[in-house]
Design the sequence.
């Protein structure tokens, strides 16, 4: 983030100038994710303090609580650094699969 510029000021600038932001967002579960967002607008869907934007990672419009944005940076509008990646895994069906508790499926 730019020195001396608050996240709210950066968001306001992105809205006014149609800029794309990369944000570090703290989710409900206290996990942090990095998202590239564009087409940012103020959202009244959940009350004051929310924005709506196109999330390049989820490839859909999402609503973000401003107080959960822990950092923000202006990025080129063509940036999709956190876009979904498709992986092709070949699973060995001869090996067992275990859940988080060590129980075999």
Sequence:
């Amino acid at each position: 983030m730019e020195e001396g510029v608050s996240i709210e000021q950066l968001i306001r600038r992105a809205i006014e100038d149609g800029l794309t932001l990369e944000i570090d967002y703290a989710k409900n579960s206290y996990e942090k994710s990095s998202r590239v967002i564009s087409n940012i607008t103020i959202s009244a869907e959940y009350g004051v303090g929310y924005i709506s934007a196109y999330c390049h990672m989820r490839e859909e419009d999402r609503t973000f609580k401003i107080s959960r944005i822990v950092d923000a940076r202006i990025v080129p509008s063509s940036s999709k650094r956190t876009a979904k990646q498709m992986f092709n895994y070949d699973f060995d069906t001869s090996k067992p699969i275990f859940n988080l508790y060590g129980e075999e499926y």
Q: What stands out?
A: The first strand starts at residue 20 and ends at 26. The mean pLDDT is 80. The chain is about 10% helix and 35% strand. Residues 1-105 form one domain.
